[in-house]
Amino acid sequence: MKLVVAIIKPFKLDDVREALAEVGVQGVTVTEVKGFGRQKGHTELYRGAEYVVDFLPKIKLEVAVVDDQLDRVIEAIQASARTGKIGDGKIFVSTLEQVIRIRTGELDHDAL
């Protein structure tokens, strides 16, 4: 089992959610986050004063998947989140040791 964490642009959330549903993902956790990467923020003009916005709004998606679903999930996120511009985001994949469904006590693959 793998945990896929993706940081994407906020306006791409619906596209990514639809793409994940098409490849069979049944559950996604979504968190509004702020951060920066190579783009290092940007400057904005507010009431005539220029100021630097260091942390940009992003969306963090977390998806737990079985190993044979991993490649399809990564491809779906990449294809639907890509704009071709800086700041499209990142995908992180890590191994899940154990998954437990609280309500039923189901373990691992059954809990997903």
UniProtKB/TrEMBL annotation:
One of its GO terms (biological process) is regulation of nitrogen utilization. It holds the Pfam family P-II. GO terms for cellular component: cytosol. GO terms for molecular function: ATP binding; enzyme regulator activity. The modification O-UMP-tyrosine is found at Y51. Keywords: Nucleotide-binding, Phosphoprotein. Belongs to the P(II) protein family. This is Transcriptional regulator. It comes from Rhodanobacter thiooxydans. The lineage of its organism: Bacteria, Pseudomonadati, Pseudomonadota, Gammaproteobacteria, Lysobacterales.
